[in-house]
Amino acid sequence: MNHAARKSILVTMAYASVLCIIAVTGSLAGDYLPGQVHDYPSDKAASSLDQHQLSFEYPNDQIARAEFRSEEFYAIILKSAERCSLTKEERTQIQKTFPRNKVFMDFFECDESMEDWLTYTNTDRNYTFIAVFGGVSLDQAKKLFDDYNLADKYPGANIRKMQAVLVYS
């Protein structure tokens, strides 16, 4: 085998190796698997988030990114009101009704401390909401909705597919 043929084989192997690394890690393209949601009220695993936030796994790898998203899930919006008008105390009271499902709220940009770096997709930024984690499937969310008779207890309650979004900047 001549020198040119060996060089061509080595370049091809190197290129294939780089593609494999990118495919496995996704780190060069910035593609990451979404973070797994922690749906139990007392689950603080992998989270430095506040009690009113839905906890999920996110990378601690020092790679710069604008945001990181959780896996998709279904939430049952129990209450919504004018931006920043619902309270963390209301969320805490509602949490007592759901011992196995996390009750969370959107408080993004409501607090002067700017410690709330978590927001949610598929919501109107002009409103604040309190929701309960319904599950990763629509069937799970519908069952919770029906089991707790939420249509009667919370008029206007609705099921919504969303993701939690940790905003880094």
Q: What does it look like?
A:
This protein is of the alpha+beta class and 169 residues long. 27% of the residues lie in helices and 24% in strands. It is built from 4 helices and 9 strands; from the N terminus they run αββββαβββααββ. The strands form 3 sheets. A 4-stranded antiparallel β-sheet has the order 5-7-4-8. Strands 3-9-6 form a 3-stranded antiparallel β-sheet, with no helix packed on it. The radius of gyration is 21 Å and the shape is globular. It starts with a helix and ends with a strand. About 11% of the residues have low confidence.
Q: Any idea what the radius of gyration is?
A: 21 Å
The neighbouring-strand order within the major sheet is: 5-7-4-8
Structural class, by secondary structure, is alpha+beta
Low-confidence stretches: 13-30
Q: How much helical structure, as a percent, in the residues?
A: 25-40%
Order of helices and strands: HEEEEHEEEHHEE
Spatial shape = globular
- The tally of strands reads 9
Q: Mean pLDDT, rounded to whole units?
A: 80
* Share of β-strand residues: 15-25%
| Distance from first to last alpha carbon | 54 Å
Oligomer: single chain
Main β-sheet description: 4 strands, antiparallel
Helices, by number, come to 4
Concise structural overview:
The protein is α+β, with helices and mostly antiparallel strands. It has four helices and nine strands; from the N terminus they run αββββαβββααββ.
Provide the fold topology.
Layout: H1 3-25, E1 37-38, E2 55-56, E3 67-69, E4 73-82, H2 88-95, E5 103-105, E6 118-120, E7 127-135, H3 138-147, H4 150-153, E8 158-162, E9 164-167
Antiparallel strand pairs: 1-2, 3-9, 4-7, 4-8, 5-7, 6-9
